[in-house]
Write a structure and sequence with these properties.
The chain is α/β, with parallel strands linked by helices. 44% of the residues lie in helices and 18% in strands. β6, α10 and β7 form a beta-alpha-beta unit. The protein is globular.
Length: 228
């Protein structure tokens, strides 16, 4: 692991961007749902994705667009999703410190809205779009970015870059866990927190990051960096 400095610049406003699936939540919502409902289809499509047949977004479309799943059943599934032990504390710290916090997700807005309701939390977010047509899922990308090459429906590099352009001098932090949807955001940010498959992906590129297990670790590192 390449470890960045533990000091955050005092003269630059902080902004925090956090992945949802497997980072702000314990489980990956889409992956867990597909494992339960479409295990064979998911395994077949993932093998084809690894072989380069799909982009991240076209894989998702092949897997989940047109899924027959009643809203009530999806809501009941979302009630089984756990937030990271430090998720609520991270939101509280950001609010107390006046630090902008935003979820950047390659998941779906419908799910994020219900998960906020279920867990009694509130956050700003960018995500892909899910609407119901009867009991059928219809999907559309949130903010793809062909220039990036990540192939996701919501490119985190583009979202962080847009924030920085609108807020010159901002010190952007990205927190994530996955090499597919989080790598470009981690590379774009001024400081990256990484675990799971994102950490070795950053190591391969020699890019500095702070390893973490839960968001409590992130809070502790941010506090130390600000001299708290």
């Amino acid at each position: 692991m390449t470890q960045p400095t533990n000091t955050l610049p005092a003269d630059r406003p902080l902004a925090i961007f956090c992945d949802f699936d497997g980072t702000f939540s314990v489980q990956d919502v889409g992956s867990t749902l597909a494992q339960q409902l479409l295990p064979e289809r998911r395994a077949n499509l993932w093998e084809r994705f690894d072989q380069g047949e799909f982009t991240a977004w076209t894989y998702v479309m092949a897997l989940l667009d047109g899924l027959e799943l009643p809203e009530k059943q999806l809501y009941e599934f979302l009630e089984t999703i756990d937030l990271d032990p430090g998720a609520e504390d991270l939101l509280a710290w950001c609010e107390a410190e006046g630090v902008p916090f935003r979820i950047l997700s390659d998941g779906f807005d419908w799910n994020l809205e219900r998960l906020q309701e279920i867990n009694g939390v509130a956050f700003e977010y960018n995500a892909n779009h899910l609407r119901y047509e009867g009991e059928t899922w219809r999907l559309s990308p949130g903010r793809p970015n062909e220039a990036c090459g990540c192939g996701t429906g919501s490119c985190k590099r583009g979202l962080i870059r847009s924030y920085r352009e609108a807020n010159p001098g901002a010190f952007c932090v990205h927190i994530g866990n996955g090499r597919v949807s989080d790598l470009c955001g981690a590379l774009e940010a001024d400081l990256a927190y990484a675990k799971d498959t994102l950490a070795p992906a950053l190591e391969e590129q020699g890019h500095p990051f702070v390893a973490f297990e839960t968001l409590h670790d992130v809070i502790a590192h941010l506090k130390a960096g600000r001299g708290e």
